[in-house]
Amino acid sequence: MWIPTEHEKYGVVLASFRGTVQHGLPLEIGDTVQLLEKCEGWYRGFVHKNPNAKGIFPCTYIHLKNAHIKNKGQFETVIPTEDSVITEMTSTLRDWGAMWKRLYVVKTVQHTHKNDGDLFHRLWHVMNEILDLRRQVLVGHLTNDRMKDVKQHITARLDWGNEQLSLDLVPRREFSMVDPDEISVTELFKLMEHRHRKKETPVPASTHHLFVHMKSLMSSNLGEELEVFFHIYDGRENRPLSERFFVRLNKNGVPKSPEKTERQCTLFVDLGSSDLRKDVYIVVHIMRIGRMGAGEKKNLCSIQYRRPFGCAVVSIADLLTADSKDDHLLKVYACTTESEWYQIHENIIRKVNSRYNLSGSNTGLAVSLQLLHGDIEQLRREYMVLFTRGVSITKKLGFSDIIMPGEMRNDLYMTLEKGEFEKGGKSVARNVEITVYVLDIQGQVMKSYVAAGSGEPGGDVYHSFVLYHNNSPRWAEQIKLPIPVDMFRGSHVRFEFRHCSTKDKGEKKLFGYSFVHLMQEDGRTLPDGTHELIIHKCEENANLQDSSCYLKLPFSKANLPGNNQAVKGTKECFWITSFLCSTKLTQNGDMLDLLKWRAHPERINDSLLKLKEIDGSEIVKFLQDTLDTLFGILDESSQRYGLKVFDCLVHIINLLQDSKFHHFKPVMDTYIESHFAGALSYRDLIKVLKWYVDRIIDAEHQDHIQQVLNATEYIFKYIIQSRRLFALATGGQSEEEFRCCVHELFMSIRFFLSQENKITSPVTQTQAVFLRTFPAVYGELLKIFTVREVAGFVRETLGSLPATARAECPLESVKLHCIAKTVESQLYTNTESRCILLPVVLRLLQAHMQEQRDLVMCARILTSMLSLVRKYDSTATEPVVSEEVDLIVDSLLVVLMRTILEITNRPQAAGTNMRLQFQDITGEFVACLLALLRQMSDKHYQQLLQAFTSKDDLRDFLLQIFTVFRILIRPEMFLKDWTVMRLVTNNVIITTVLYLSDALRKNFLNDKFDYKVWDSYFYLSVIFINQPCLQLESFSPSKRKRVLEKYGDMRVMMGCEIFSMWQNLGEHKLNFIPAMIGPFLEVTLVPQPDLRNVMIPIFHDMMDWEQRRSGNFKQVEAKLIDKLDGLMSEGKGDETYRELFNSILLKKIERETWRESGVSLIATVTRLMERLLDYRDCVKLGEVDGKKIGCTVSLLNFYKTELNKEEMYIRYIHKLYELHLKAQNYTEASYTLLLYDELLEWSERPLREFLNYPMQSEWQRKEYLHLTIVQNFDRGKCWENGIILCRELADQYESYYDYRNLSKMRMMEASLYDKIMDQQRLEPEFFRVGFYGKKFPFFLRNKEFVCRGHDYERLEAFQQRMLNEFPHAIAMQHVNQPDQTIYQAEAQYLQIYAVSPIPESQDVLQRDGVPDNIKSFYKVNHIWRFRYDRPFHKGTKDKENEFKSLWVERTSLTLVQSLPGISRWFEVEKRELVEVSPLENAIEVIENKNLQLRMLIAQCQSRQMQNINPLTMCLNGVIDAAVNGGLARYQEAFFVKDYIVNHPEDGEKIGRLRELMFEQAHILEYGLAVHEKFVPQDMRPLHKKLVDQFHVMKSSLGIQEFPAYVRASPVHFTNGSPRSSCRNSVPNIISPDGARVVARRSPLTYPAVNRYSSSSLSSQASNEVSNITGQSESSDEVFNMQPSPSTSSLSSNHSASPNVTSSAPSSTRGSPQLQDKHKHSRENSCLSSRERPVSAIYPNPLDPAQRTTPHQIGDTTLPRSDPNLSAPDKVVRPTFSSWSLDSVKEVNNTQFSDTVGKLLCPPVPPRPPYPGSSAKTIRSQSPVPTSRSPQKSSLPPFTPSPTECQSAGLVSNSPVLSGSYSSGISSMSRCSVSEASGTEATTGDHAAHQGPTMPNSVSSGSDELIRRENKTPPPYSVYERTNPRRPVPLPHSLSIPPSVDPPALPPKPHQQRTSSMKLVPASDPRRADGVPHVPRPRPLPRKVSQL
Fold first, then answer.
1. Which of 118, 404, 416, 862 is a plausible cystine mate for 475, CB 3.0–4.6 Å?
2. Contact 1332, 1391 (CB under 8 A)
């Protein structure tokens, strides 16, 4: 049975539990669980990170912990009862753990920045460190101090990690997290700011220390022991700054005592900031201990001397940049002259190279140096190991910058400077050594008080170093004498001088001595400075044993009596320098006189006067003694010395204000509390103080009075303590007298404060001095007076200040400082006194804030005030607090808000410091406002709102507070990691808004409606909800839980309030439509379901009200659409929102009368959301892929067709353009930019600045676009398209006579022609891709596309690329159409296979003589249709002859736009499935093979082939036919009687097959003849074999002789050149294409979205969705032949028998050759069309609908180019340009649909005529298609002569004649070319007869309409801009020469330029006939006029 747990409430998971049992709850190790129930070893509960999931788990998996339960019962919360630091550590480590794992993924997977990897490792170490520290805290064995250190360390690590991971700053007090509800907002702000400052700007340390570790001396000439001395040296003042550090080295150069680290390491302490300069150095002197000469041989002499060895110097500035301990190798230098040793370091510093040199090339001193910062105690904590291991302390010479009380020091430093000695009867100078002893008063040598430096213990004696043969030696050697204070008196120092002999004995012979006393008789010590000592002669040591003998002698020349000239005149002298650093001894006689005042009463006056001249350090040394002296004098002679003692006391008090002695204030405080005994002093002190105050106004000099007032604090301390001592001693006598004195004193003070003076008056400055010190007195007064009395003193004193203040008066800021200190004082914290002081404080504060003066101080005061006011609770008996809040609200609320507005609107100062200060006070004022609002209750709000007398005042207040709230919400208001502060701010704002919304409803609705206030309210609410800090979804689970528990979801609260207020508006809602649509939409996009459910219905309300007002809701729709794009591109909104928006609004409008239009709006917006979401998802991906481009195309089309938003449309054009450029899709980029180009005209209309375009004219922008597009076409190798744009630009330049640019454009055009002919282009593969399943984006879902592959990309590579783009997709392994289960699956399926393009420009491809590199362009460009063939057997398969049952399933795909276009892939618009019968298949195979043979033969004849191999292989493949039996198989299959009987309908086809077989035999015979002519000798046997096999083949076909029609039509290539065949008179009837005419589609058709008016976008949104992509083929399109790439390529070396399956040779595309892939698996479903077996057997057979059958063509004849023919028979009707839909509507004329084929076009079209000429006439032959069989035509067809070809519009492409044509006037070259001007003159009525005369000759525009069957015209066709369709003659290989001579070349038509710069043909037949000129229609007005 499950029993609720009583005490077992909280636990931690010890091991992971899978939860596989019924109702089991999965657990992870480390999870914390809350336990609800228990049953037989199982708990039931939940994990804290997911409280909604409850379940059971074993008890053994849980470690129980003590916990505190809140709200016991159903909604109880459990808080572990552990140290708050532990709780924080645990939760923080959990959060870090998840982020740390993410860092690992980023580091390993994405290989991102090095810093991320570093952070991963650093965080790992810190987490481990925190875990270790956590264990230490949990064990609980730490001392209090250690626990404090550990917690400080933990919090520092936590803060570091939070900062690194961009987590929130945690406010703490004493290491524990602070609950924001427990403290005031101002305190919270202070804590946050303190932690931020601590993090950002560490306070620079004022004290520094240098750590030195002596490691070794490296030198080649060692062998003697060494002494190394370090000291810090000031190079500027040439003096040492520190004492010396002394290290002994052994003979190997390493320290003698390595185990004693204090002998090797030292800390130079107490360096000031001023000591860290470039000219401060570490100087190292090295002495050797040994023989006199370094190179002397060893002898019997055992005496050793200290001799100079070397010196090293390093600047302390080199260490400033080093953070860690650095090892240095210092160069060691030696003196060139030994006598210069004393200044070697100075020479090295000054770089006097002549005086020193390196002591050895490899000599170096290895030391470790590190600069440490902070006081010594801090270092002891931070570098504990350093101090525990042992380090000697090397002190500074003198005191540090700050003298600490209690510091005990008594060090006397002596420097042995120099000596002057006589030779003493020697021939050479002496080697002098000094021996130093310290002797006490008894004359005994003091032990261990002579030290060479720190590091080594002191000794009894010190020996100086010896300078060789020098009678004037200079040592400059410092020693330290740490003699105790009590031993100083009577002690002296003795210096003994010895000569060190270098003879064998090596003795040291005494020859003199000097001495000096350490203390004078009057108690003063030896004064600092240099002393010249007398050298007394002495040669026996015994003479010195009794010191009393020589102490009576004079020791210094300065002390000699004037009559002792003998000693003064002696030459021998010795100089020393002494320096005393003592906290107990003094060298000052005046100080001693004052302290001994009782001994000399007559000197008291002088001593008191001289006290001010004594150095401060001497006074603080004897502070207590001095104060005792002063008060002793005051007690004894107050009348006589009272004023002087008071002045001395003031001097000492002011001395302690100095920063150097600041730390002695506690010493004085201690003295007052514990040692002061002047019980009567208060009377004199009050009396003198009052005397000074009364003199202030009359005094001329205020300096001394100001010093007195500056010491007021301590004077009052003495007064109060003295009174307390007196009261204690007398039992409280004279109380009234004392109170009276104090009252009188304050009256005097108030009187002098109340004086109004000039700003510069000294009295004003004195008032300021008093106000600065006055607040310090409060605490002292409280020791005797009551709180109310003191508050009264303060109120009256501050109230006496002059009220009329001037801003520039310095007193004003001092007043504020005084108020600030008052508010921060102990007095103000008391509630009683606060009530008395508050009015005064508020009055002053209000005055300053209103005038915006001293705002920093105002903020400080306000912060302190509000920190003391606790949250008022109605149940508590604290009406005083409520009154305080009332007072503050009345006085400051409005002023405070105005101040915040002023500050935030003020321009920010340039300086960083000013900016920081500005930011600080803003934050403080904001915290104050929040604190005040948080402490306001219902009552306060009611009183506040009732206080406004008029509606205008209330309106202004509401507007002001809403504005302030908007400022508070700004992201920059608080630092990024101050989330705690932001949440508190938002909580206060929403609480206040709820109070104020009532006032808004009551006062500003109905007839009192005020739009501005309501608008401000809504605007505030919207930005409140959208704040980043309230988006809980972005928080970690633990943080989200904490926020929800404390504040709830404030967004939902505010959303409900918005909805409530909106409902109250009634008809006033119309004021906010459409203005609030965007803001409310932004709110609904917030991913909070409750908020969305509340806010979305407002849109229904808006639609309803807008419908009532204007009958529609176009405004609502427009605004929604405009805002959606921007908001969703910012990352807002999701799929859930789209569904919710749709469902809620559809449900809401169900019963509305306007339901239909509402549904339409909702559907439109929903579809837009789908596309925007897809677009956003795609854009998130890093690389550009097809998905991203396709998505952009989808969105771009949607904006144009459905929404008619031109500006958005253009924006997405440019986004798509950028994507293409990034992906290097230059051709697609050109097509994309062309969309924008087409919206512009060649006009001078000014355009505004837009995107990256400057303000410019429309002409300039269009020119720029043209040039950019041409450049991209060039980069994409789509040069044909670039040529057309070059021509258009050239026409524009020519019309403006801009010949410079015209020249450049012509050269550019020429270069593009060159590139077409010279550069290789790769033919891309095309792939059909199906995207099936619901998991694909909307624009791909369940659709099929054809994609243009990249260069060299084959099927496998493309498949892999698609699978990489869609990593979750499954590749389908068949090509069949999927069923509905696949369509509806919650997955992604990809179906990919290759397809073959069906080229549009068959005329170019089939024309002989057109180079392959031109043809290759037309094979793969402007492709609308694609084909996929799948062979299959129908019925029983005949194993002997599979051709009988081999059918082909042909799938034709028609795209919505042609490829290439604005994307690499386009959707399939139409899918057709046709089955091709075996017979038709055979016909197609043979037709294609015949075409291939004909082309190869022609190439061979024209010598275009480099070798004959392709022709050989092709002939061999057809003749040999070893694999499938060749033509014989077709005979067996289709010519047998059974087949003919069973298929009577195929009779004509069988005949056609027979003709083709005969034709093939004839072609083979001719081909063998050509082959024989060119075949090389080594291939003759093969040729002979082919000839033999051909005869066998002929006999197998039953051909003995060719039929008559075949015999009469041999294949003629007379001149060996295909071009020359144009002139031949023999008709080429073998060509199966006889005289077919193919209607030409423009070679360059821009397949973009449907081209509407160039000036505006169509508004036919829904009707024209299907027309987005424009072009598709009509059923009558005729293709002559479409050979497979494997058989049609002229360069193929792979052509084989049609019965041999072969791969498509890569040479056909200019790409590397592929391996054979013809494996018959899965019916070759995934093989490309060029790789499937069927492609070889049936090379791209034609669609049956594309073939022209004889009965379709009829008996029409081809009109001849005969002068006898009437002109109308030669004229094609002119057509209007179909470039724009603004043109005259095209009419669907179906009468020609069955008869008109395609007009052939040249490879690159002629230049279009100038666009200015609107109607143009093209005179040309109009070839009419004839039947395939010659017998069916009544007249043999003729082909025009070359001259007629030129007149028909081919001139510009003719390589032969283009020179003569282009040599004329360039403008004429743009007009339509007519046949002959003479003919035009005689055909004036041709227009009337044209229709009936030429039923088969139609305009190309009409033809285009007929051919497309009412489909939209091709969008953005560059040809159709200005160029009507041009009829083109048949290619020469298919033509029949005329029987008459061709007419002469017609003259070029003359062209005139009209005044309007438009070109009109001079001989325009329409003009001659009087037919009016039809102008180009004007474009419609532009929707977005300035884009």
1. 416
2. yes
Residues 6+ apart with CB under 8 A from 1482: 1443, 1530, 1533, 1534, 1553
| Residues 680 and 662 sit within 8 Å (Cβ to Cβ) | no
Helix (H, G, I), strand (E, B) or coil at 458: coil
Contact 391, 261 (CB under 8 A): yes
By the 10 Å C-beta count (0-12 exposed, 13-18 middle, 19+ buried), 42 is classed as: middle
| pLDDT 10s digits, 1760-1790 | 334 343 333 433 333 333 333 333 333 344 3
Percent helix, strand, coil in the chain, to 5, is: 50, 15, 35
Q: Are 924 and 981 in contact (CB under 8 A)?
A: no
pLDDT mean over 860-879:
67
> Which tokens sit at 906?
């003020």
Neighbouring CB atoms inside 10 A of 652's CB total 23
CA–CA separation, 1516 and 1496 (whole Å)? 13
Collapsing DSSP to helix, strand or coil, 782 comes out as coil
Q: How much is the pTM? A: 0.63
Which residue type is seen at 371? L
Q: CA 606, CA 1522: separation in Å to the nearest integer?
A: 141
- CA-based torsion, 351, 352, 356, 361: positive or negative: positive
Residue 508's DSSP bridge partners are 500
Question: How do beta strands 1370-1371 and 1389-1398 pair?
Answer: parallel
Nearest in space to 1252 (alpha carbons), one of 1219, 1285, 1210, 1281: 1210
Neighbours of 1506 (CB within 10 A): 8
CA dist 1059 and 1062 (Å) reads 5
CA angle 348, 352, 358 (to 5 degrees): 55
Could you tell me the end-to-end alpha-carbon distance of the chain, in angstroms, rounded to an integer? 78
Q: Mean of the pLDDT values across residues 898-905?
A: 86
pLDDT digits (tens, 9 = 90+) for 1362-1421: 999 899 999 999 888 999 999 999 999 999 999 999 998 888 888 877 888 888 899 999
Q: Which helix (H) or strand (E) holds 495?
A: strand 492-500
271 membership: H or E segment, kind and range = strand 265-272
CA 1355 to centroid of chain Cα atoms: 39
Q: Residue 811 and residue 860: Cα distance in Å, rounded?
A: 18
Q: How far is CA 1722 from CA 1104, 1369, 1982, in A?
A: 60, 21, 55
Cα–Cα dist 925/931, whole Å = 10
1896: closest CA among 1822, 1833, 1835, 1828?
A: 1822
The tokens describing 993, both together, are 């808004």
The candidate with the shortest Cα–Cα distance to 1026, out of 953, 950, 948, 1078, is 1078
pLDDT at 883 (0 to 100): 83
The closest of 1140, 1118, 1131 to 1074, measured between CA atoms, is 1118
CA distances 454 to 258, 392, 479, Å, are 16, 7, 10
| Nearest of 1933, 1403, 1794, 1919 to residue 1637 by alpha carbon | 1403
Q: Where are the alpha helices (DSSP H) in 384-537?
A: 384-389
The C-alpha atoms of residue 51 and residue 1041 are separated, in whole angstroms, by 10
Smallest Cα–Cα separation from 1927: which of 1849, 1851, 1843?
Answer: 1849
Contact 1117, 1074 (CB under 8 A): no
Q: In terms of residues, how long is the chain? A: 1987
Q: Give the single-character DSSP code of 1651.
A: P
Q: Are 400 and 270 in contact (CB under 8 A)?
A: yes
* CA dihedral angle for residue 773, residue 776, residue 782, residue 783, rounded to 10 degrees: -110
d(CA 247, CA 255): 7
Q: Which helix (H) or strand (E) holds 990?
A: helix 979-1003
Q: How far is CA 737 from CA 71, 720, 787, 1199, in A?
A: 61, 14, 20, 95
* Amino acid letter for position 1317: M
Identify whether the C-beta of residue 332 lies closer than 8 Å to the C-beta of residue 363: yes
Give the span between the Cα atoms of 134 and 141, in whole angstroms: 12
